[in-house]
Amino acid sequence: MTASLLAISGLTKAYPGAVANDDVSFDIGRGEVHALLGENGAGKSTLVKMIYGLVKPDSGTMTLHGAPYAPAEPRAARACGVAMVFQHFSLFDALSVAENIALGMETPPPMGDLARRIRAVSETYGLPLDPDRVVGDLSAGERQRVEILRCLLQDPRLLIMDEPTSVLTPQEVEILFSTLRKLTAEGVAILYISHKLEEIRALCDRATILRQGRNVGTCLPAETTAREMAQMMVGTAITPPTRAARPLGDVALEVTGLSLHSPSPFGTALKDIRFSLRSGEIIGIGGVAGNGQDELLAALSGELRSPSDAIRLHGTPIGRLRPDARRRLGLLAAPEERLGHAAAPDMSLTENAFLTGAGREGLVTRGFIRWPETEGFARRIIARFDVRTPGPGTAARALSGGNLQKFVIGREVLQRPEVLIVNQPTWGVDAAAAAAIRQALLDLAAEGAAILCISQDLDELMEIADRFGALNEGRLSEIRPTAQLGLDQIGLMMGGAHDMEVAHV
Amino acid sequence: MDLSSINPVLLLASLIAASTPILLAAIGELVVERAGVLNLGVEGMMITGAICGFAIAVNTGSPFAGFVMAALGGAALSLLFAALTQIALANHVASGLALTLFGLGLSSLLGQGYVGIKPPPTPKLDIPLLSDIPILGPVLFSHDLMVYLALALVAAVWGMLKYTRAGLILRAVGENHDAAHALGYKVVRVRVLAIAFGGACAGLGGAYLSLVRVPQWTEGMTAGVGWIALALVVFASWKAGRVLLGAWLFGGVSVLQLNLQAAGVAVPVEYLSMSPYLVTILVLVIMSADKSRAPGSLGRIFHASQ
Amino acid sequence: MRLRLEKRPQPARHWIYLSPVLAVLVTMLAGGALFAALGKNPVAAISTIFWEPLFGEFAFYYRPQLLVKGAPLVLIAIGLALGFRAGIWNIGAEGQYIVGALTGAGVALAFYPLDAWFLFGLMILAGALGGLAWGMIPALLKLRFGTNEILVSLMLVYVAEQLLAAMALGPMRNPEGMGFPGSRNLQNYPAAHNAELIAGSGMHWGVVAALIAVIFAHILLGRHILGYQIRLTGQAPRAARFAGVNPARLILFCLGTSGALAGMAGLFEVSGPAGQVSIDFNVGYGFTAIIVAFLGRLHPLGILAAGLLMALTYIGGEIAQSELGLPAAAIQVFQGMLLFFLLAVDVLTNYRLRLLSRAPDPSRSL
């Protein structure tokens, strides 16, 4: 760690109704891995977007290599040696690896040369990749390699990485970390955004912690406990969910030989999924994003239909039933995407309460909607789950992620499901809301419901699940009791047989 | 009925000419859709081009000036669509319909004084030697400049999309506008340019109808050609080369039914006139099974929120 | 200084009502400019169009016309709006209108000169079924093959126009018509005539049907689960699938209903105001209804108001044509403009305009 590479001083950015960044200052040295730590909504993305030229600060200055730095657009940032690996939204599924990389470069060489350089650089850093493959067919880990290679081909001085490990298996994380260490040895600085404390302790030299848009401190992760960092990040201590021992009942949901094609061209087909879920039990399904999670939820919720016998609810075959029919029988679901899937963004909370509550809550008589009762149901959800909103007439899209998620989960929980399927129940949700949601799931199980929780957050699954299985390329691993699982085993389950070879690279 | 009056060489030659308006409009719309924009206003832009080109050609005596003006007119009208969808973030489908309704009205207003006039002839470009080759000569090498321009345009669009950086950026914007924006590409600018190009092409196609194919001005003379061009883009799976095939197919159908009409086939004229539309539906039915090639962001509204 | 759009946290209620009004006002201004460019007095032209039919000297004649012209527009637009709400784009109402007129009139012509009380009811049924059948073609093709309903329904307009020509010149031609194209005039066939219910009021069965359609659609969208499913599917298709909506049923319902309503509108027109099946009895109501549907914000009561407004521009346009020599096409442009401005000001419902005094921000360029 030598002289400062990038110094940030007093950066402020306000949006209507919210200050995303308030007077943030810190600096990053050459060859340093600097962590940017904070909860969802703490202002991490806005800050890096300012560094990358996607957003212009209201006030404050930046200095790069000792010279004033104010990129007007990403192109200018890239020209100054600043590169960014995005968490979402920056790859083109229908284009090839080489085309995707060319789009991220200022003056790409002809395609033939580029393909050669991609092969060369990917060898050097241990990130094997075929430049001619279509990106949509790649696994999540491979897609990330494309993004990293795109940056590396431009000889960056500062590499920004936004939650890079959220799409990786533990083994893949190790490979990524060794790549990053190689880079820092060459003097490249890395700004590493995450909320995973252990990983920051393992990788980062320094950490800057953001809370509600403010810099609340910089620390040396190696010398700080995860608990201390969490305290700084959240502000208050969060009480972890309490887990009561509960007796398991009969098998509530039985899935046997479930195989399905994905409706979307770049989706993942489900291959011979089988498991059984008992009343009072929570099964956690882990796995890297894009390995069939959405398809599994759709198959269980009824959005995708399967052979009748493949799914049985208390012994009744339900594979051919639509979601509303399954709900009537007691199987409820909450998909990952809140806006547009679990809820209609422009509809009011009352109308959104009707979306899944119509049947079980008796909100329809002879085809006509009972609006007063529906509003009452919405009010009960709002009250019981502490949804912060002006009222049930508010549009769903006006709620914050955490509040809407509480509403969505609450809507299903209040309908007393016998089986509940959730996908990423706390994705993009602040710590307090996440804790509340996990507690609600545990309480529901304690009352005898069977819960299948699909999540990419391993900590979450370890916290609430009785048994754990992992999805890999549409296949489900054996399901094992969580109490007996170590991180290595989980990694192998997530990687499946295929990725184990990569793990030895 | 006398089918022997149909001369296959002339039939093929007029097929090439008959396919030109639809080819021009479709290749323009292909670029628009590859940029992620669904402009249903092709019919409106075509007919506006038809009258703009016609009026200027009549007033200046130069078909060339007519075609230039037709392209400008089509592009100008398409910019209205661009303003609605790219700036006011209006629904693509509704805006495209608005453009067609407006274009139909505007063209008949502009065309008030031009009914029943003959435009100056567009010269045929008889390519020396080549046009003297039997059969191939009349079929391929004795057309007017616009026919060759249309073919050149198809080749240019194909090459642009496949080999150039501009083409790559255009495809990227159409595939995933959020990603393109995150990389710093000007999504709106790229789309506005594509829309204007599409408008110019549609305008040229319309002018080819009013100046060469018919040639005269009548209200509503495009008679659905713009819509068929839209169907053609689907038929072509958003590939430039296949647009050419499709245009020839439709050119063939419409020329054939005209020839059958002329030959006095014992089917009422109206039923023959239906055939291009029915063929379009048939083609849509056959081609719609494969949806995967449609650009990922097609018809979606882009707003850079962060 | 520059303008920027910012998404509102939720749709602004007042703009939902204000935007059509604003659009009409802006269209009047732009239309005035257009008329001035055509060498007409813009104030006179605008007042002729909007004032004359309602309060002018001959208002007693024009006011009933408002109902006559507004009814088919409203009837068709109600059907279209149901589909548009669900993201199902039937833009071939003109074709369904024509086919409904043909089947309805066909029944009358087949029974001529039978004088039976049930004949008119049978014609309405036939008209509705004809439009329904024509609307089912894009629906079934969409379900079976995934074809785009926009293009198919539109292609069928051109097919229907040819069919109309074939019928007017062929099987339906008036045998006593001295060889002129066109069918018998149903106005002279009392059992089949869609006559005024109250003389001089403009009120015919089509007006009644339009009003019933408005009421039904209003209840359907606001209170019935099917209406909820229509709205949900249009706003968030994935959420609709998650809720358990059967998309196939919605496609059949929306295209079927809009086809049937358009077919009925065609029947009421051909058996009443138009009188006979002739090559050009259709005057583009099927397309104008698209404007009406949007101008009415896809809301049944809004459509009722928008249909009357659009009828006003038709009637006023005709007056301006005869009194001021304003070309008929100018009115068509005027109507087109209205839709343009409506779509443009609609953005204010979901976004707010913000004045920025700072240097341009590249990430927000419009």
From TrEMBL, chain A:
Pfam families xref list: ABC_tran (PF00005)
Keywords, ordered alphabetically: ATP-binding, Cell membrane, Membrane, Nucleotide-binding, Repeat, Sugar transport, Translocase, Transport
Subcellular location as annotated: Cell membrane
Topology of this chain in the membrane: Peripheral membrane protein
PROSITE patterns: ABC_TRANSPORTER_1, ABC_TRANSPORTER_2
GO MF entry, a single one: ATP binding
Broad class of the protein's primary localization: membrane
Annotated InterPro entries: AAA+_ATPase (IPR003593), ABC_carbohydrate_import_ATPase (IPR050107), ABC_transporter-like_ATP-bd (IPR003439), ABC_transporter-like_CS (IPR017871), P-loop_NTPase (IPR027417)
SUPFAM superfamilies: P-loop containing nucleoside triphosphate hydrolases (SSF52540)
Gene Ontology cellular-component terms listed: plasma membrane
Residues annotated as domain ABC transporter: 6-237, 253-498
Protein name in UniProt: Nucleoside ABC transporter ATP-binding protein
Provenance organism: Roseovarius litoreus
UniProtKB/TrEMBL annotation, chain B:
Membrane topology: Multi-pass membrane protein
Alphabetized UniProt keyword annotations: Cell membrane, Membrane, Transmembrane, Transmembrane helix
Signal peptide location: none
TM regions (residue ranges): 6-25, 37-58, 64-84, 96-115, 135-161, 192-211, 217-236, 243-265, 271-289
Main location per the UniProt record: membrane
Domain of life: Bacteria
KW Membrane (keyword) present: yes
A GO CC term assigned to this protein in UniProt: plasma membrane
CDD domains, per the entry: TM_PBP1_transp_TpRbsC_like
Pfam family, one: BPD_transp_2
MF terms in GO: transmembrane transporter activity
Annotated compartments: Cell membrane
Name of the protein described by the UniProt record: Nucleoside ABC transporter membrane protein
Biological source species: Roseovarius litoreus
From TrEMBL, chain C:
Subcellular location: Cell membrane
Parts of the chain that traverse the membrane: 15-38, 70-88, 95-112, 118-141, 150-170, 203-226, 247-268, 274-294, 301-317, 329-348
Alphabetical UniProt keywords: Cell membrane, Membrane, Transmembrane, Transmembrane helix
GO CC annotations on file: plasma membrane
Main location: membrane
Stored InterPro entries: ABC_transp_permease
GO molecular-function terms, A-Z: transmembrane transporter activity
Membrane topology field: Multi-pass membrane protein
Annotated coiled-coil segments of the chain: none
Protein name: Nucleoside ABC transporter membrane protein
